[in-house]
């Protein structure tokens, strides 16, 4: 799991606009900021308006930037549609979607088609792309906006937010050391712990700490431990005992009370490794079963490549192609093959999606894309 990605997904509108402004300014040297229409000066609050950020090119062309962490399909397309209508009288305008999440390919495709009909250039930045930029291109921005995230990412949960359970669920789904079933069980356990902290512990503050292999829930409520309820038949205690017995040898959960805070830690017992190895034809096969289970949810990748292989072929001809999985594989291979070529084999219907993504990363000069028939 990349904690930068999770951090970005939990930013509010004002915070995401600040990052967007800095990244757009650095990535597009021809653009000059004109106005932060969607932000309230001196605060992290946002306001309604089109666009969120207004830039202008050195040729006087308008650049509208819509910034959002709302992952609803209608929201992204609606923002682009509103920009198109507002730009009807502009010459060679540009629209950019700056998204704190990774949308489905068809959403970006629809936005691109809408813009092309009006001769408007359409660009986008997704969570995966923003994460890559902060990690590799502009680390100084990561220092500013994602302070100490390499060691621990504090995500404060506002007890008065109606959607805090959705935020927690999204966070857990991006903990790649958990598998599908563990996501659901960890969410249920965390929900029970929060419920107990509020109802029984009278907590005023609750926050989550994330590291690469642990989830830590901290509250300032009264000293309270699920382990002290052994034998009691309550929903919370039953969930706690069920979780501990089900994941013996896989996940461990512990509780302690330190300096006025209840601390519950859920940790992985061990981290599986993925081996990426070239065959006799210099091909690294990435089959469906690995992408669907191991690749998306395990974080450690080891690479073994024959010294004679150049180029190196990475076969990802599967129906589902998460950009995070693609970039993770490419990044692992690229680290040990600095002077060799990489060829990515992808399904024909995903070429444009993958190519547009790679063109906005540091890997664009290293990777060649070839279309192949996908596997069932």
Could you characterize the architecture of this molecule?
With about 375 residues, this protein is of the alpha/beta class. The chain has three domains: about 5-145, Dna-directed Rna Polymerases I, Ii, And Iii 27 Kd Polypeptide, Chain: A, domain 1, CATH 3.40.1340; about 155-270, 2-Layer Sandwich (Heat Shock Protein 90); about 275-370, no CATH class. It is about 35% helix and about 25% strand. The chain contains twelve helices and 16 strands. It has helices spanning about 5-10, 15-25, 75-85, 105-115, 125-135, 140-145, 165-175, 180-200, 235-245, 290-295, 325-335, 350-360, and strands at about 30-35, 55, 60-70, 95-100, 120-125, 155, 205-210, 215-220, 250-260, 260-270, 275, 285, 300-305, 310-315, 340-345, 365-370. β2 (about 55) and β3 form a beta hairpin. The radius of gyration is 23 Å and the shape is globular. The protein starts with a helix and ends with a strand. Mean pLDDT is about 80; it is low at about 40-45, about 150 and about 290-300.
């Amino acid at each position: 799991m990349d904690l930068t990605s999770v951090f970005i997904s939990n930013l509010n509108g004002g915070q995401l606009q600040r990052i967007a402004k800095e990244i757009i300014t650095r990535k597009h040297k021809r653009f000059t900021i004109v106005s932060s229409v969607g932000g309230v000066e001196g605060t992290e609050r946002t306001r309604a308006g089109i666009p969120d950020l207004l830039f202008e090119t050195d040729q006087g062309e308008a650049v509208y930037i819509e910034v959002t962490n709302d992952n609803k399909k209608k929201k992204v397309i609606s923002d682009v549609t509103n920009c198109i209508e507002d730009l009807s009288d502009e010459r060679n305008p540009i629209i950019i979607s700056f998204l704190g999440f990774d949308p489905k390919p068809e959403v970006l495709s629809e936005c691109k088609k809408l813009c092309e009909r009006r001769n408007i250039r359409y660009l986008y930045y997704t969570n995966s792309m923003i994460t890559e930029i902060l990690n590799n291109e502009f680390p100084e921005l990561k220092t500013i906006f994602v302070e100490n995230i390499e060691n621990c990412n504090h995500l404060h949960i506002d007890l008065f937010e109606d959607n805090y359970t959705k935020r927690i669920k999204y966070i857990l789904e991006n903990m790649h050391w958990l598998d599908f079933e563990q996501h659901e069980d960890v969410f249920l356990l965390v929900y029970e712990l929060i419920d107990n902290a509020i109802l029984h512990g009278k907590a005023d503050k609750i926050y989550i700490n994330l590291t690469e292999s642990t989830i830590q829930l901290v509250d300032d409520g009264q000293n309270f431990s699920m382990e002290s309820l052994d034998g009691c038949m309550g929903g919370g205690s039953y969930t706690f005992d069920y979780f501990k017995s089900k994941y013996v040898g896989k996940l461990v959960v512990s509780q302690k009370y330190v300096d006025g805070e209840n601390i519950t830690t859920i940790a992985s017992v061990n981290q599986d490794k993925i081996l990426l190895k070239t065959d006799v034809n210099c091909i690294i096969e990435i089959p469906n079963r690995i992408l669907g289970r191991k690749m998306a949810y395990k974080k450690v990748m080891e690479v073994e490549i024959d010294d004679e292989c150049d180029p190196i072929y990475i076969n990802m001809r599967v129906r589902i192609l998460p950009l995070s999985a693609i970039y993770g594989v490419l990044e692992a291979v690229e680290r040990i093959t600095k002077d060799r070529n990489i060829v990515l084999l992808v399904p024909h219907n995903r070429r444009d999606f993958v190519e547009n993504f790679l063109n906005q990363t540091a890997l664009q000069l290293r990777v060649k894309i070839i279309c192949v028939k996908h596997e069932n």
